[in-house]
Amino acid sequence: MITITGAYLWPTSTLQPPKSFEKTIINNVNIIDVETGEIAKHQFVVIENSRITKIDSINIEVSDDALKIEGSGKFLIPGLWDMHTHSNQHSEWLHHPLYIANGVTGVRDMSGQLNEKDSYWVGSKERLQWNKEVDNNIRVTPRYVLQSSYQMDGEKAIPEESPDFFKLQKPSQVDSLLQFYKNENVDFIKVYQQLPKDTYLELAKKAPKYGLHLAGHKPMFLSLEEAINFGQRSFEHGRIFMYECFPEADSLKKPENWKQYFSKSKAKIVQQFDSVQAKELMELMYHKNAYWTPTLQTLKFEAFAHKSEFTNNENLKYVTSVSKKLWWKFDTDHNKEKNIEREGISVSKQFFEASKQQVAMANKMGVPIMAGTDVTDSYVFAGFSLRDELYELTRSGLSNLEALQSATITPAKFSNIEEDYGSIGIGKKADLVVLNKNPLNNIQNTREIYGVFLNGAYYNEEKLTELKNFAETAASSFHMNVKALISLVNSPLIRVQFAD
């Protein structure tokens, strides 16, 4: 017990961001316009403090104390964003370094807290403080774009001792919930699967009055058409159309037995998919400006959990033993068993392939697609999986440019901050990635990182290697694993999530 206590109380080392310069110049770099796909070759880019102040094809003279970066033969893109993540109290050590090392400078966290600080999940207060520290260049962390509530999933998802309005048992509790989260500087209410229909509709009607919007799952007990028409701004995960577009879809809208129906009808859901109905819903999403974050990585994990070539991932070294043994192993074993119990292609593989086909359909219909991964889910790795997601989006029919847009300008527009982020231009924030190869030729070239700018501070190759080494050391350390275990055990939010 003394050893455990000592490990829990042991101070954890911290990372320092690189020195910031008042002025930085990138010489002779190729700038990719992520809106048009055009490349401005041999450009000189001046960054002053945290913003781009000059771009010219003629060499710009700067003072000797400026940081000079040689960009010959290299390509400059905006920093990448992961629009579906989950951060926790250990993300400073386990996630943030890996995001930056992989060129991910912005994330949307789809988690939150209730009225008390949680031992595991973080909330808007922590994330907004991290953002301030990015702006002051005193912390290594991506920007946290838009702030989420805790997931609203009805009474069973909320600890018994929490205030009743979080349980949303009746529409009359909606105003109290919205006022609470407005006071917490939250931007959206994360809606989940088992939220009752009447409270969802009340949330959708009243959220804009509090300056909030709805994002998350499509609740099971109403139609996707209703959710789109009531103004939900983003829909998460690759199953949303499969849940809706088959002859017995109404059977999934019954609160008392939808889970049992789903578990025995997955094959039917895929095989009887109605593409005509799906296209009608996609057209509605386009006209209502509703965004989709397919998180293909989650379905890919379910499809390949039984394949050693998938599960023997080199990035496991960045994950604590606590997560691998208590969370990921259970998840992997469960999906592995499902996949090998039937001959031929598993239903999970069919779901994955069908989801990619639907991404292609939605993209052609004009639905805005955002790249997201669902970090901290099983076999989803901070930073690394975002590049995997971009690759799967191209395998789903998106062009290399469209995939790049899904992690840059599209999420910036969704977040209503495209004046500052999402593309490269004078006056914009210097959150940038310098690549050795052109990602428009091959999206896998987003892995070929030469350097990363975050708020104007430059992470060179040596610093990026340091970030990865730091996260690997943290994940393998005894005291970090003890901290992770105790935070999980002590979290009432984790307990109700696992119980459900």
Description:
- By secondary structure, this protein is of the alpha/beta class.
- Helices cover 39% and strands 15% of the residues.
- It has 19 helices and 15 strands.
- Strands 1, 2, 3, 4, 5, 13, 14 and 15 form an 8-stranded mixed sheet that branches. Strands 9-10-11-12 form a 4-stranded parallel sheet, with helices on one face. The chain has a 3-stranded parallel sheet with strand order 6-7-8.
- α10 crosses α12 (321-340).
Helix amount: 25-40%
pLDDT average, as an integer?
A: 94
How would you sum up the global shape? globular
Low-confidence stretches: none
- The count of DSSP E runs of length 2 or more, i.e. the number of strands, is 15
Please identify the structural class as seen in this structure. alpha/beta
Offer a quick outline of the entry.
The chain has 500 residues and is α/β, with parallel strands linked by helices.
